[in-house]
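User: Need the bound-state model for zinc ion:
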Amino acid sequence: MDKRIEKLMKIYGWYEGIARALIDSNGYCVFCGENLVETRLGYSSIVMDHLLPKSKYPDLEYEFHNHILSCSSCNGMKGNFDPLHEGEEAKSMLQNRQEIIDRCKHYLSKSIRDRKEEWLEIKDLLNDS
Ligand SMILES: [Zn+2]
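Assistant: Bound-state model below.
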């Protein structure tokens, strides 16, 4: 096991799934690409997302391949989105995670764009006075 994963678990008490996800993505939200370790707020928004929602795939809740690093914003917008197509088998699809990640990114792309636009507008609004 990666020494950094061990350290996150032993010293900081992280659950192995999120520790692995953090190291795998090097601290970036897999969906929006935001660096989550650069700022305190980014760090505070780190969550472990279940690529295949645990509501629909409860047997994959503790499957490491189903865990991914996300910011709380993307995680909230993703909700219970199921990226699988009719007839696809969940466990075998998790072996090709990039395909699943891409489907989730596609699903989230408009929401992420809209949210960013709103954020920039609010910033402008506050600078207008
Ligand atoms: Zn994100």
